[in-house]
Design brief:
heterodimer; A: alpha+beta; Aldehyde Oxidoreductase, domain 3; Aldehyde Oxidoreductase, domain 4; 3 domains; seven-stranded mixed beta sheet; 19 helices; 28% helix; B: Uridine Diphospho-n-acetylenolpyruvylglucosamine Reductase, domain 2; Uridine Diphospho-n-acetylenolpyruvylglucosamine Reductase, domain 3; Enolase-like, domain 1; four-stranded antiparallel beta sheet; binds flavin-adenine dinucleotide
Amino acid sequence: MNVQSPPTDKQRIEKLQGLGSSRKRVEDARFTQGKGNYVGDIKLPGMLFGDFVRSPYGHARIKSINKDAALAMPGVVAVLTAEDLKPLNLHYMPTLAGDVQAVLADEKVLFQAQEVAFVVAKDRYIAADACELVEVEYEELPALVDAFKAMDADAPLLREDIKDKMEGAHGARAHYNHIFHWDCGDEEGANKALADADVTVEEMITYQRVHPCPLETCGCVASMDKINGKLTLWGTFQAPHAVRTVASLITNIPEHKIRVVSPDIGGGFGNKVGVYPGYICSAVASIVTGVPIKWVEDRMENLSATAFARDYHMTGKLAATKDGVITGLHCHVLADHGAFDACADPTKFPAGFFNICTGSYDIPVAYCGVDGVYTNKAPGGVAYRCSFRVTEAAYMIERMIDILARKLDMDPAELRMKNFIKKEQFPYTSALGWEYDSGDYHTALEKGMESVAYKALRAEQVDNRAAFERGETRKLMGIGVAFFTEIVGAGPVKNCDILGLGMFDSCEIRIHPTGSAIARLGTISQGQGHATTFAQILATEIGIPAEDITLEEGDTDTAPYGLGTYGSRSTPVAGAATAMAGRKIRAKAQMIAAYLLEVHEGDLEWDIDRFQVKGNPEAHKTMKEIAFASYNQAIPGLEPGLEAVSYYDPPNMTYPFGAYICVVDIDVDTGVTDIRSFYALDDCGTRINPMIIEGQVHGGLTEALAIAMGQEISYDEIGNIKGGSLMDFYLPTAVETPMWTTDFTTTPSPHHPIGAKGVGESPNVGGVPAFSNAVHDAFAHKGLTHTQMPHDHWRVWKTAQKLGLTD
Amino acid sequence: MIPGSFDYHRPSTIDEAIGLLASHVGDALILAGGHSLIPMMKLRMATPEHLIDIQDIYDLSAISIGADQIDIGATVTQAQLIHSEELADCCPILRETSLQIADPQIRNLGTIGGNVANGDPGNDMPAIMQLLDADYVLQGPDGTRTVKARAYYEAAYFTARSENEILTSIRFAKPPAGHGSSYHKQKRKIGDYATAAAAVMLEVSNGSCTSASIAMTNLADTPLWAEAAANALIGSALDADAIAAAVAAARAITNPASDGRGPAEYRTHLAGIMVKRAIETAHARAG
Ligand SMILES: Cc1cc2nc3c(=O)[nH]c(=O)nc-3n(C[C@H](O)[C@H](O)[C@H](O)COP(=O)(O)OP(=O)(O)OC[C@H]3O[C@@H](n4cnc5c(N)ncnc54)[C@H](O)[C@@H]3O)c2cc1C
């Protein structure tokens, strides 16, 4: 006999693959077989290709542009310059930061690789050849490269287009190269704390210009359908709805006549939030020619022209008592934004959430001020896997804490423990105004220190230093501790918007008659695995197995409006919308179940995947049965169908945190740094899919390694970009990447429907100071306080040399 | 990063290749593995109108190891150099060096001829060939001649090869049994060229160094054969003083560029460290 016993509760839960399940990524089946569909894969009949003529100079006047030779080349269809865009008023475009940016250089070029002309041709080879034939005559001008000289009285004037506009998007501008001044906190109080302190430390900490360098570069296909007047834009957009609205505002094409689609995206990390000249030029060219235009930048264009990250010069000052209680923080930032202010921050936050710079510490009084300036460098200033300047802030405070620990001759972990915000202080309002939702920092750092055997490591370091003095080794061991608090999930509409668009997000769910479902979100995955994890949230909420839920994002014609994916906002905002939409479905399902079971709604209880009569679980209706009923029963007082949509405006940000500990061994003769071990404990609240969290942490730590140990986009004194190819720009391979050890604690967010906080960016935020602190720690006993990143071989050797450790 | 347009030729004999080269002289370039040339073409730093692909020429693709001499065909790949057990037994530095070039994908295509022929100062094999005192066999319309690796490199991308010649093979004396050798290379990451690198080959008899050769990569616009540094070792017990003298002599002939890998001062310093470590490793392996 073959009697099947009913599944147990555990089996029913497992079948859902809901919250907490390490469900395999559904995206990988296509990605691992090369079946993804990226912008580069899109082919449309009659499609033409665009390519840019770019500036060889950092700063120059354009004296003339001659297109004749290029236009004469067979296969060349058009060559656009600023002159062609002017009649359409499209030679400048608004940036997400309230500035304008030249689409094609207008009389002047302001950074090397700036877009000067757009060539449209039958194929991309002809386009590239024709670019060489466009003759541009330049008159070189003195370049402004050093941000510290931007506001000098005799500094070159960069932005002639706004030279008389001394009221900027964020208040008065103090100089023609000044963009904004923004500050926060109590400067007088912070200065008083410093004046009264037993101990103070001060350091100018530069977070160098780097680039997110996604594997897929930026690109788009623009297609104007002249018959129905509809413009479709496929592109590498991290925020497709925002692109649609911006495109409508600047082209005057009504918004319903624009469709924006983000197909598969090969990594974004902030690089794909902004609007680039290539998008505008492709759209214009398609409108003019009536055929689709494809533009995809190459690697060097990506590194040298599309959005960079960081470039913050941060002067921090800490005040403390002699036994290590921090009494105040003062900091000032000089922010190098390049030639146009094209960073992507909420309108009220021109320096992002840099005022999270009090970190994980209970600092009674603090002040931060930021001045943004123009230089002859590429525009940008995006996140790079960090929520709006949080990684800069975390790097500054985590370095400052270590510097203070040295001065006090205290263990850096102990100093952190001493100053942490205590568990019982949450929700905690920081001196700079953020309300931290939840945290348990002591437990996390204690767990980390225990896991790495911190005391034993410090003892080993004592032995290592003694052996070094005796000449028995040429290696120095460093231990880097970092404890970060992130601020993610932008954000509450009351104070977060981008170009006036509130930063809510959305989810729409339709349950099919046979009990499967489709959900659409306003976000867009670029590798985060949304199709996997958001289905898991729903599975737990509505009792339909994750594998029966299709998840769609990125098409503005079908998805509900949302502000997209960056700043670790998808789970805190769209994830919350998903849970809330699921709850709406469940509420209606309960009414249907009550009708079917002929009981009162209140007599029912939810159980994993069904509603059952309280006290009589035999009497139940599964979600599958309810779904079918919603389509075929005339239920009094209820509309047919089972659908819901939710727009979620988060009441607060979420504040993930973590404790990272890194051990390095440095060869002082070569400057080679070996990462011996790296331990990362992340607390991102409720964990939706532990495997995906681990993957996100691995990726973010690898980026942090790259930034701390090698990445830099620098310019020579006349504005030539250095490191603009992968020959020099440091992208570590598997060989350079150490083994990562991951760990977690779970402190749910009290205001998020499922308690989740977001994790994608934490490892980049916390990783960089952990690596940097480890390098500094190796030399701390020799008196090193601070050196600037990246800690590549020659700079580390230089440090050793300056400390007299080399021969 | 799109190359200009070109015609592609794929001859199957050396004569055919030389003929093609002669008929397009000045406008043609040999294509072997393409892993130096194609990146240059994508940057439009090289704009050949004709590419003559020599990968189909069977005669160029063999490693032959005789009693006293080793002959390596121009299109032998770095992967082939790694996989030849016989070569690794008699001249292990070729495997050791090949394994430090780029990554397996590049080594599967990059050839020894392409690596040494065009005088790219970043490539590793030219210094090794100077270390081994190899001869390059060049064939052109007027026949065949040989040029010493130690005399071949004139400046970055300038060599003794004339435009109408093909490098067909590399020859060198089989290193003596019992020699010790080593190649120490420091780079920023896999796929990067050397910040500094040094090759050492030596023999030791009764505790004393009886022969030595030292060469360095990417520390000037040509590979550097460090004759004085090697002489500082010969006759010594390879003690600290001798090594220090060799290091000083090696550093003295470097003239590196300051670039993303570091300032010249650092690269010169590092050259000495690489030489020192290569001597120590070679010494440990000798005998
Ligand atoms: C990312 C990357 C990293 C690399 N790292 C290293 C490294 O660390 N060390 C290193 O040594 N190499 C490195 N290489 C280069 C690679 O190892 C190849 O050896 C090198 O490209 C030359 O071999 P090839 O067969 O590809 O030559 P090709 O690119 O085909 O040719 C190179 C040049 O030599 C000429 N040429 C080729 N064969 C002949 C011949 N028989 N006669 C005359 N002229 C000829 C060509 O005309 C051309 O000018 C790297 C390459 C890449 C792409």
